[in-house]
Amino acid sequence: MNKTLLALQDYAKDFYSNTEFGDSNIVGSPLGSWLLVASVASSLDFGSNPALKAETENRLHMSIEEAKEAVEDLLEQYRELNYVAQAWTTPNLNSLPAVQKWVEANTLIPHEGSIPSQEQINKWAATNTNDLIKEFPA
Q1: What is the pTM of this model?
Q2: Which of helix, strand or coil describes residue 110?
Q3: CA distance linking residue 8 with residue 31, whole number of Å
Q4: 24-55: per-residue pLDDT in tens?
């Protein structure tokens, strides 16, 4: 089994052991979460906070450099992931320098701007999951 698959498997165990979703289908997923964390981490400068880098790598179950390469490989190899790998932020976050830096440096996960209305996000979820998820839990 390759290193990326093992890291994703361990991340999924952590994800589900720390998250409660009830009985319904969910929009959040370990893979989506891992892709986002790896993408954000790969665009950060951890120079002044090596402890945060170590904790992030511990959560990703691989180095940030390996995670960035894995995200690139996954998005290239499985084009379908490009349709559901999206990131939204709230308007007050969009003005923060760290968020602006991530949006500018991020080449892995498309940033879609501000979080859409409930109706728009429900339509996005239904369209991008072939109607498996009709309502985005926001």
Answers
A1: 0.67
A2: coil
A3: 7
A4: 555 567 888 898 889 888 888 888 899 999 99
